[in-house]
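Lab notes, practical 5.
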Amino acid sequence: MYAFTYHRPDTARKAANLIGKVEDAKFLAGGMTLLPTMKQRLAAPAGLIDLTTVEELRGVEMKGRNLVIGAMTRHFDVANSALVKEKIPALADLAGMIGDPAVRHRGTIGGSVANNDPAADYPSACLALGATIITNKRKLPADEFFTGLFETALEEGELVTKISFPVPNRAAYEKFRNPASRYAIVGVFVAKKGKEVRVAVTGAGANGVFRAAKYEAALTARFHPKGLDGLTPFPAEGLNSDIHADAEYRAHLITVMTRRAVSKALGK
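Output from the prediction step:
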């Protein structure tokens, strides 16, 4: 690593103030992506603003009909939260699939969402559940937040503070994981709220997480795995292709994972 200055504020306000004063600084959440890239000298921020002692950014609570999770809440805590299991069990299930125990005990939901890795799990949950990403400056609908590979609508120095998830009637997440990293080669989150069904896909898109509009329409008409019968195969165009899976295989997996997610959501 190159030399850098280290800051450890104890409030979100102090963290936000620091990012505006420290030249070329980065927020440090769980460090699951930033620290490895710094070790490989692929990133060299002049300053790190560590958020681990900002307690106001942790925790899970209900606000009205929404489940609100603090940005510094660890994957382990989301997976094991009694409230998450009660209100959105699919979200707890998703968190329990992330990485390995070491990653789940360090990584945070806010860090994952802000980083927007194209194979990360949480972005699909945010899109499918119609979440709102709350920052120190504004509230952003998930449909407007994720803008491309490792890209979001966050402005320079903007800090994710919490994420608000509307509670669905039914939801489930299924993924075909890389056996080494456990990242999603293809992951599909399906959520039904009222008459609306949303289907979000991670791991497959060449431009990152996306919603599968044709599958949403079919499942809105009939929320059942057979609701996808008769649809043309998912197109491989625009999907990622790498050493783990080519675009055609990922297209096939999107259909398979969607059917499995719907079955799981129906308790089958």
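Observations recorded by the TA: The domain at 170-265 is CATH 3.30.390.50 (Enolase-like; domain 1). The longest helix spans residues 247-265.
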